[in-house]
Design goal:
There is one protein chain. By secondary structure, this protein is α/β, with parallel strands linked by helices. Helices cover 46% and strands 13% of the residues. α9 packs parallel to α13, α9 packs antiparallel against α14 and α13 runs antiparallel to α14. It starts with 7 loop residues before the first helix and ends in a 7-residue tail after the last strand.
């Protein structure tokens, strides 16, 4: 059983209390900028073992009678069809998924704001799609005068040019399917409108990372920097906080850079200076729920190695530049770890060297390693998953869970009906074939039941895998990395 280093229930308790305290500090209403992921925060779960990837929704459910949610999505992200990397879906589809899932939990969705709008055709199309689903949609253009002309920003020409979003509850959570979606601007625009209407409202920010009360070079904070290397986030000491309180706190460069602007805008709207530092604006309590720092540090170092592989894969595929990849590599080396500190890397490479084919190694819950290689009729990802469930079910390796006839039947359909040039069964096809076999073969049914034990396991491939295989590893909950090498097929 994997060690935990984070008390999730304590976190829920402290985080809920801190948000309620911040609402009370302002009185009538709080606009809470919610960074990160509401669901499936897999990065947090990996670096803070014991962290529930859906914990934010538990916190929201604790507050559901007090809150409503506004979602922001940037028109440029819609136009570029931007993809959420961890699930391989567009920001637009992720937004629809979030809204559906939150409503199933009984949470109130107020509306969607399309920000940074400049008559992008794709944004117009997405707006119509949302409105035809019955959603309220608002359009925000770039704020006139931002960031330096505060007189214009805090006026009817600036924030006042945006439509006012009618809200009725004391907590308004502002979230987005990805970064740079205009959450802050939406919160400040609403504050301007609220104060014009005589409503006393406030602003706060909820970001899990960086963890403000951990050291700057703590592996958890470095892992966050590695995860956001593509948008050039850099952890820094909050010099505003240090000067105001004599206490060291960690924040990131974008919040520090924009703080003087935000402080001026808030002071102009509220009539006084509410916050002395970016850290003051935050409500995050994650650092107080760490129970075993050694466990958390090791988990974070492993995440940095995963990010190293991910970034070099993206560089090889033309999705990232070499400077970004080098930056993550430097962060990894600064932590005193390297690629071979990932337990599955050496076995995968050794298997590939031995057989001359691409290979995948997977670490089982007991720490043992199984491998799979490309075969005449089976790709390595399919082979390793089959070998893994056989090992977990203690089935002799000589027993075939998928008969040669079944494999031949699948490949015949691919070749003749689908005109596919591939001559091997991929992971998805192998799982489907196993499911059919399980209906009549108790041994296969027993083995297939072991799939759920693979959640949280680690795996490594000696070549970059297609998106279809990556998606299945994600759905199985397996943390996969790949050498930045193209497959020969």
């Amino acid at each position: 059983m994997k060690k935990t280093g984070f008390d999730n229930e304590l976190y829920v308790k402290k985080q809920t209390e801190n948000i309620l305290k911040r609402i009370d500090a302002f009185g009538n209403k709080l606009y809470l900028e919610f960074g990160g992921k509401l669901f499936d925060d897999l990065h947090a779960a990996r670096v803070l073992p014991g962290f529930d990837p859906n914990v934010k929704t538990k916190i929201l459910r604790n507050l559901k009678d007090k809150l409503e949610i506004i979602f922001c999505i940037g028109a440029p992200a819609i136009e570029k069809n931007k993809i959420r990397a961890d699930f391989g879906i567009t920001y637009g589809n992720e937004l629809l998924r979030l809204m559906r899932n939150l409503r199933e939990l009984g949470l109130k969705i107020n509306s969607v704001v399309i920000t940074q709008y400049n008559e992008q055709p794709a944004a117009d199309m997405f707006r119509k799609q949302l409105e035809r689903k019955g959603e309220k949609v608002y359009i925000h253009k770039l704020t006139k005068g931002y960031p330096n002309d505060v007189d214009t920003i805090v006026s009817d020409e600036g924030y006042g040019a945006n439509p006012y979003i009618e809200t009725t509850r004391p907590l308004v959570v502002v979230n987005a399917p990805g970064p740079n979606s205009g959450k802050l601007a939406t919160c400040l625009s609403q504050l301007y409108h609220e104060y014009k209407r005589g409503v006393r409202a406030g602003y706060a920010k909820y970001e899990t990372f960086p963890v403000w009360n951990l050291p700057l070079k703590h592996p958890v904070n470095v892992a966050y920097e590695a995860a956001t290397a593509d948008i050039d986030d850099r952890n820094m000491i909050d010099y505003f906080h240090l000067e105001a309180y004599g206490v060291s706190a960690v924040n990131y460069n974008r919040d520090l850079e924009v703080f003087p602007v935000v402080k001026n805008i808030l002071s102009r709207i509220l009539g006084n200076s509410v916050y002395k530092s970016p850290t003051d604006m935050g409500v995050n309590m994650a650092g107080y729920a760490i129970t075993d720092d050694a466990v958390v540090q090791e988990a974070a170092k492993q995440e940095i190695i995963r990010r190293y592989f991910k970034t070099y894969n993206e560089y090889k595929q033309g999705k990232a530049d070499l400077d970004t990849a080098h930056r993550v590599e430097i962060l990894m080396k600064d932590m005193g770890v390297n690629a071979l500190d990932r337990t599955t890397v050496a076995p995968a490479r050794a298997k590939a060297a031995e057989c001359g084919h691409s290979s995948v190694a997977l670490e089982l819950p007991d720490g043992s390693i199984v491998t799979g290689r490309d075969k005449n009729n089976l790709y390595a990802p399919a082979a390793v998953i089959i070998n893994a469930i056989k090992a977990l079910a203690k089935i002799d390796d000589k027993i075939k869970l998928i008969t040669p006839d079944a494999i031949d039947a699948v490949l015949k359909v691919k070749r003749e009906a689908l005109k596919s040039k591939t001559k091997k069964m991929n992971l998805e096809e192998a799982l489907i074939a196993l499911s059919f076999s399980a209906a009549t073969n108790p041994t296969v049914e027993f083995a297939l039941g072991k799939l759920e034990l693979l959640e949280g396991c680690e795996a490594h491939s000696t070549v970059m895998l297609p998106e279809s295989s990556l998606q299945i590893f994600r759905k199985l909950g397996i943390n996969l990395t790949c050498d930045p090498e193209f497959s020969g097929e």
